[in-house]
Design brief:
Keywords: Pyridoxal phosphate. Its cofactor is pyridoxal 5'-phosphate. Belongs to the ACC deaminase/D-cysteine desulfhydrase family. The protein has 317 residues and is an alpha/beta fold. It has 2 domains: 192 residues, Rossmann fold, CATH 3.40.50; 104 residues, Rossmann fold, CATH 3.40.50. The chain has a 6-stranded mixed beta sheet with strand order 1-2-10-7-8-9, with helices on both faces. A 4-stranded parallel beta sheet has the order 5-4-3-6, sandwiched between helices. Strand 3, helix 2 and strand 4 form a beta-alpha-beta unit. It is globular and about 60 Å long.
């Protein structure tokens, strides 16, 4: 059964005026209850390639609390496509995300971090395809040229005019997709992980692959430098790391605006953006659009971790 999801549920809405800067939201978290945020955008054209090829199953990679794997599992159930995942590390035994994936019919196995590091090794991937004929291998996080094509469509949907789009990044795929669109404004990327400086060259590489695939002229380097800002100061200790300051910010944001943020990406994004506005990085009168990329399924797993340390929980109910 071919699957199609309407992205028009992702509305633009005003959030607040902060120190003279108007902050708006692009509500990709409302695209679909289970395949939400940027996940459908990344998966959309991978799914098209799956349908066009001689494939029978999708395999991908991710951590035990991966938004990508949760969305892929849901997609597999809805589209009646078998899905399989290789999960990084040893923490897979206590994961609401993987419990959810199993309930959607996804098969998965935990592998060592050493084996997981082979996820882009051609010989390793060829061996997987020999073991499972008809296997479509979907890169970690759903990245790749098809994902950029899906994310570029965000620009076509915009009704308002903005000086900047702010978004969180783990791989940089969504940011690269936005920059692939010729009408994209300035893009401000907030790294969700420690050591995020790799994101700039990664984004440039993704764009090069995209332009090569579709026969497009490359974006001039000076234009890319002007259009892309990378912020690496708000990772809170690393990927999927948070502290009580961030939890309290999430809870306060929900109380004030009824806005749910996730602990890995969008909470760090909005926290960092508001701090940067206060520090004068944006001119008064600027209009900034924050991309809400979903990821709310990860809250249950984060709250388990917080409860074990007897710390304040993310409380949205």
């Amino acid at each position: 059964m071919e699957l199609s999801i309407n992205t028009l549920n992702s509305k633009e809405e005003f959030l607040l005026n902060h120190h003279g800067v108007d902050v708006f939201l692009k509500r990709d978290d409302q695209i679909h209850p289970e395949i939400s945020g940027n996940k459908w955008r990344k998966l959309k054209y991978h799914l098209e390639k799956f349908y066009l090829g001689d494939y029978r199953q999708i395999l991908s990679f991710g951590g035990a609390f991966s938004n990508h794997l949760a969305a892929l599992a849901a997609l597999g159930k809805l589209a009646e496509i078998p899905t399989y995942a290789m999960v990084r590390g040893e923490e897979a035994g206590d994961s609401p995300t993987l419990e959810y994936c199993s309930a959607q019919g996804m098969e998965w196995e935990a592998i060592s971090r050493k084996d997981y590091s082979l996820k882009e090794n051609p010989e390793f991937l060829e061996a997987l395809q020999e073991l499972r004929p008809g296997l479509y291998i979907l890169p970690e996080g759903g990245k790749g040229v098809p994902a950029l094509k899906g994310c570029a469509e965000i620009i076509d949907e915009l009704e308002g005019t903005y000086d900047c789009i702010a978004l969180a990044a783990g791989t940089g795929t969504t940011a690269a997709g936005l920059l692939a669109h010729p009408k994209a404004p300035k893009i401000r990327v907030y790294a969700a992980l420690k050591g995020g400086s790799f994101l700039k060259p990664a984004i440039a590489q993704y764009l090069q692959e995209y332009q090569s695939e579709y026969g497009l002229a490359p974006i001039p380097r000076d234009l890319l430098i002007r259009k892309l800002d990378l912020v690496t100061d708000y990772h809170f200790g690393g990927f999927a790391k948070i502290n009580q300051e961030l939890v309290q910010f999430m809870n306060e944001t929900y109380r004030k605006y009824q806005l749910k943020l996730d602990p890995v990406y969008t909470s760090k994004l909005l926290f960092g953006l508001l701090k940067d506005i206060e520090a004068g990085h944006f001119k008064a009168g600027s209009r900034v659009l924050v991309l809400h990329s979903g990821g709310l399924q990860g809250i249950a797993g984060m709250n388990r971790r917080l409860a074990k340390k007897s710390e304040e929980l993310i409380a949205y109910d």
